[in-house]
């Protein structure tokens, strides 16, 4: 597929040949690149609806998406760094955080740029629905102050739980998808600036993640 993942699309059985069509049962298991070891789950069989008004039908099971999630999680693809150098619209500083959380302002008197490091702590769970699929992500986000010598100083770390829905559709002969962020929750895991109410940060962090992370994932 790319540098991070390979797909095994070998046949599970001999092709079933009928008078109006041929049925190909492909394996459809995704593995981390260079490591042919994946999830221990077995794909459940499924049947494509009996239709005949198109020449080709393709169906993907949850197994395909779950093994894809495992492969990219193993490769670290869900680890994201958000900083001024990587996101042109990201210009958050410790001064802005300090205006919301006094403890940050007291800890970092001099304003410094802020860098966010997001990491998935569990394999994202993908569930197929009637017209969409949902993704459950458990992760962590560490907030750093970027010092003048380019070193970083950790301010605090939060646990993050997100639930998103993706609705695929065909537009102008292209497969596209719309992404909706259903839920985004934070909890304080560790702090070098002292304890503070996480609700003070939820609005600004929700804004940052929706404007910086979600569009790039949707475009990809």
UniProtKB/TrEMBL annotation:
GO cellular component, one term: extracellular space
Residue intervals of the Lipid-binding serum glycoprotein C-terminal domain: 50-217
A single GO BP: defense response to Gram-negative bacterium
Keyword terms: Antibiotic, Antimicrobial, Disulfide bond, Glycoprotein, Immunity, Innate immunity, Secreted, Signal
Any GO molecular function: lipid binding
SMART domains noted in UniProt: BPI2 (SM00329)
UniProt-listed InterPro entries: Bactericidal_perm-incr_a/b_dom, BPI/LBP/Plunc, Lipid-bd_serum_glycop_C
A Pfam family matched in the record: LBP_BPI_CETP_C
Top-level taxon of origin: Eukaryota
Subcellular location: Secreted
Domain remarks in the Swiss-Prot or TrEMBL record: The N- and C-terminal barrels adopt an identical fold despite having only 13% of conserved residues. The N-terminal region may be exposed to the interior of the granule, whereas the C-terminal portion may be embedded in the membrane. During phagocytosis and degranulation, proteases may be released and activated and cleave BPI at the junction of the N- and C-terminal portions of the molecule, providing controlled release of the N-terminal antibacterial fragment when bacteria are ingested.
Role, per record: The cytotoxic action of BPI is limited to many species of Gram-negative bacteria; this specificity may be explained by a strong affinity of the very basic N-terminal half for the negatively charged lipopolysaccharides that are unique to the Gram-negative bacterial outer envelope.
Assembly behavior: Monomer. Homodimer; disulfide-linked.
Name this polypeptide is given: Bactericidal permeability-increasing protein
Native source species: Dryobates pubescens (Downy woodpecker)
